[in-house]
């Protein structure tokens, strides 16, 4: 009988303890409910506001057609529409997620989630660096387009190879340089990038100097040979040089034009330094 009584008392004690815990839990839920509802309302409000701000940002960016044309990778009018849509999506997405983060931070504060709040604060504190880096890159692209157009305008009288290569190279150099600055602004160690960029620029300049030297070798040889050409013959004389015989009708800066039986032949001036020339017949000098 005593055992039964003791068991009943134990069950009663456990029941009372369980009811007390459940009552306390229910009270905590009731007390926390306003904060929970406030956090949910903030999140829902954030979604609405983020969508509205994203829509506004897309429309705002879409109205800057001429400015965006300057910031496009191509810099041409045909690329403006595609670039405008791309920039609008990127800016709209950035505005949307930044708004979401701000409302999540407010909701975490309301719910007293200290660890979540600290993490969101660190993320939001990092956003200005990303924005500045993006602006640096945008300015770099614009400057790159300007550099390309300037070099292209300066090379209108240059060779087709120069017109195809040098404007793009000037733009790439400017964009890559600003890209390194943007990476440093984000906080990434750009020492390796700077080293690689320096080596690349040095290699490109070296290759360009070598190509220029090799390409100018013939021109320099003809300029030097022109001195011997003017000493060896004058307009109106008949000369033979490198198996070509004819009357000199023109002495240019880097060449001589001979009238032969087969027609007019242009002889590079360097041949007058490299090959023996024979004066076949004196003639009258023509102005």
Task: Count the DSSP helices.
Answer: 7
Structural class: alpha+beta
Spans of at least 5 consecutive residues whose pLDDT stays below 50 are none
Distance between the termini: 147 Å
Rounded mean pLDDT is 76
Strand order of the largest sheet: 4-3-2-1-5
Walk me through the structure:
The protein is an alpha+beta fold and 287 residues long. Among the domains are: 1-112; 231-281, SH3 type barrels. It is 74% helix and 10% strand. It contains 7 helices and 5 strands; from the N terminus they run H-H-H-H-H-H-E-E-E-E-H-E. The chain has helices at 2-62, 65-71, 80-110, 114-154, 160-186, 191-232, 271-274, and strands at residues 238-241, 244-251, 255-260, 263-268, 277-281. Strands 4-3-2-1-5 form a 5-stranded antiparallel beta sheet. A hairpin with a 2-residue loop joins strand 1 (238-241) and strand 2. The longest helix has 61 residues, at 2-62. 18% of the residues are buried.
Write out key terms for the chains shown.
287 residues, alpha+beta, SH3 type barrels, five-stranded antiparallel beta sheet, 7 helices, rod-shaped
């Amino acid at each position: 009988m005593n055992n039964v009584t003791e068991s009943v008392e134990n069950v009663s004690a456990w029941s009372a303890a369980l009811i007390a815990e459940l009552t306390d839990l229910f009270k905590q839920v009731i007390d926390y409910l306003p904060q929970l509802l406030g956090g949910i309302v903030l999140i829902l409000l954030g979604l609405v506001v983020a969508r509205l701000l994203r829509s506004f940002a897309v429309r705002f960016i879409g109205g800057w057609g001429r400015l965006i044309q300057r910031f496009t990778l191509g810099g041409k009018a045909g690329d403006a529409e595609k670039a405008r849509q791309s920039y609008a999506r990127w800016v709209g997405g950035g505005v949307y997620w930044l708004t979401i983060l701000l409302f999540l931070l407010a909701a975490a504060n309301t719910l007293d989630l200290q660890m979540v709040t600290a993490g969101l604060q660190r993320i939001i504190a990092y956003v200005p660096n990303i924005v500045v880096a993006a602006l640096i890159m945008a300015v770099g692209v614009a400057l790159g387009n300007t550099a390309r157009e300037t070099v292209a305008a300066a090379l209108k009288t240059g060779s087709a190879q120069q017109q195809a290569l040098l404007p793009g190279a000037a733009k790439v150099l400017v964009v890559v340089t600003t890209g390194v600055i943007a990476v440093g602004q984000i906080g990434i160690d750009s020492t390796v990038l700077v080293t690689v960029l320096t080596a690349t620029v040095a290699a490109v300049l070296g290759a360009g100097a070598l190509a220029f030297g090799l390409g100018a070798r013939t021109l320099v040889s003809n300029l030097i040979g022109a001195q011997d050409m003017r000493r060896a013959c004058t307009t109106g004389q008949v000369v033979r040089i490198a198996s070509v015989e004819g009357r000199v009708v023109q002495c240019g800066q880097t060449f001589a034009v001979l009238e032969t039986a087969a027609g007019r032949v242009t002889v590079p001036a360097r041949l007058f330094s490299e090959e023996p020339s024979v004066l076949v017949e004196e003639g009258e000098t023509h102005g």
